[in-house]
Structures are given as structure tokens and as C-alpha cells.
Amino acid sequence: MQVQELKKLIKEDNIPKFLIFTGEEYEIQRQYIQQISKVTGKSVYYAEDIAEIWKRLTSGALFDASAIYVLYDDKEILTQEAIYSQLDTILHDNILILTLSSVDKRLKMLKTYESSIVDFKTLNTDVLKRYVQNKIPLNDRNATILMNLCEHNYGRCLLEIDKIHKYIDGITKDEKDVDVNVDEIFEYLLDNGTFYIPPRDALWDFIKAFLQDKYTYAYQLYEELQELGTPTLAILSNLYNMTKQVLQVQTCKTDNVEKTTGLTSWQIRNARECVGKFSDADLAFLMRLIQRVESQIKQGIIEESIAIDYVFTSFY
Q: Residue 121: CB partners within 8 Å, gap ≥ 6?
């Protein structure tokens, strides 16, 4: 199913009971989920696995109000024919949206529900630029820079646009009539390192391996980062940010992780790959350790060349 087809079904209030969302544009997926909620009047419930949803749907009068259930990358439902073959019956007036980071159409379940798969592909340049400029009036050059910085991902563009808006709110808080040049502010923030610069693939792989308790592989990737000349402080900063996000997701007890943590669906998806590998206390300790090492580097107490080794030996 094309996104435009889904848009038409939502407009007609003819939404299928079961949908599969895939593709890189997680923010647009989130917006469609919210739009389905608005049109149907159903609340959104984010579940950990299909067993949790199954329990709620078969609990009789305990959960009378129908809902939109959202499930992230649950592999069990893909292989359990006893479950997915009963979806149309068991869902009743509920809607289930399964979001998948990738789709293997060889699976029987995905062949069965092929017409329910909606691929949210990366927006083309012209469409994305229009979306960006609708959110903030950047000129074409700066809008293109922002898009490239965010690797043409709309959700990440929104995060950086929010930083610009917050900066503008700060400088206009006491002076309502101040003349604001959005392009000059964007260029100033860009020069000052305000915007997030994506880490190299090797850096992301290192962080993921480290937080998945893959010590040997993580250290091999660290040696690769050394050969690439990746700055130590950049490694520590990215490791700290990801550790914090994993801890936020791991300790979140509410149904709506996005709303509670303030993280995007993209950040939550990445964090979930590392959830459960270390205890909450271990993750909190790692964050404090990284902060201490960063501080000691800046004070000249510890050499950058041994800083990451120190983190390894102190944490593992």
C-alpha cells in the first residue's frame, strides 16, 4: 500500500484493522498514527510485545474501550501463524499497527498481509524542502544544508528546527519587537556546533556493541575508530548520549515512551536494541564515568590516548 492510499483511507474513515509500517521516516509514521487516532477517536497504546496485546484483547470487559495498539519490531508475531491468522477476529474494533525496521517478504505472514504494508520511504528532496520550509522560513541554501545534515530524515530535521525555534524564543523573550533573521540565526548555530552531526557508521557500531555487552567486538571497533582519527571527546559524547537514551527507555514504565521520555521514535528504536543488557545502576554509573573522564581530559588529568581504555577497564 502506498502512503497516499493510506491517506485516502484515513480521510474516508475506512482504516484497516491491521497495518504494517516500515521505512526510514519514523516521524511521518508517528504523525499517521496520531492522525488515525484523531479520526477514529481511539487512544494509542504502545505495547512491548504481541503477548501483552493478546492478553488485553482476550481479557473481556477489563478493557472495554477499543484502542490503536502499536508494536515495534516484534518478531514473534511474524512467525506465529496461530496468532496472526486470528487477527481479524480477535481485534474486533481495535487497530493493530506493527512497525518494522525491515521487511522480509518471504515470510508467510508478510505475504498474507502484503496489502497492509505501508512503506514510508525517505522523502524526495523537493518534498522534504517544502516540509522544512513550512516549519521554518530558511532560504533554499540553508534548508538544503539542514536536510543534508539530517541525512534527509524529516524527523531529525524537526529536532534541529526545534533548536532554532527555542533559540529565537530565548532572544525575543524580553524584546518582542526584535528583528529576527532566521537564516543568520541558523548559520550562527551551525558555526557554533549546536546541531547534531551524525557519527560515522563505525562510531555507531562501536556504541551499539559497547551497550550490547559485546566487549571484544566493541574494542575492535574502537581500534578502527583510532585508525580513522575519530576524536576521543566525540566518542565519549556519543556514547554518553546513547547511554542516557537507553536508560530513559529501559526505565520508562508508561505506555507512551515518546511522550514520557521526549525521545523520537527513531531514538527509541535505536535504544531498544540495547535495552536489558545492563542494569539501570550500571548505565547510570557509565554516564557518571564518562562525565568524569571528559572533565579530566579537559583539565589535563588524563591523556586522551588512554581515556577510552580507562572507560573500558572501569566499566567492564
A: 23, 24, 25
The domain spans of the chain are 3-119, 125-191, 201-315
CATH of domain 3-119: 3.40.50.300
Read off the pLDDT of each residue in 157-168 and give the average, rounded to a whole number: 92
Mean pLDDT of the region 166-187: 83
Distance of alpha carbon 18 from alpha carbon 247, whole angstroms: 31
First to last CA, the chain: 47
Phi, psi (5° rounding) for residue 71? -125, 125
Q: Which three cell numbers stand for residue 313?
A: 577497564
Nearest to 190 by CA among 251, 142, 237: 142
Q: Is 142 exposed, middle or buried (0-12, 13-18, 19+ CB in 10 A)?
A: buried
Q: Where are the alpha helices (DSSP H) in 106-153?
A: 108-112, 125-135, 140-149
Domain 201-315 has CATH 1.20.272.10: yes
Which pairing describes strands 43-47 and 117-119: parallel, antiparallel, or unpaired? unpaired
The model carries a pTM of: 0.57
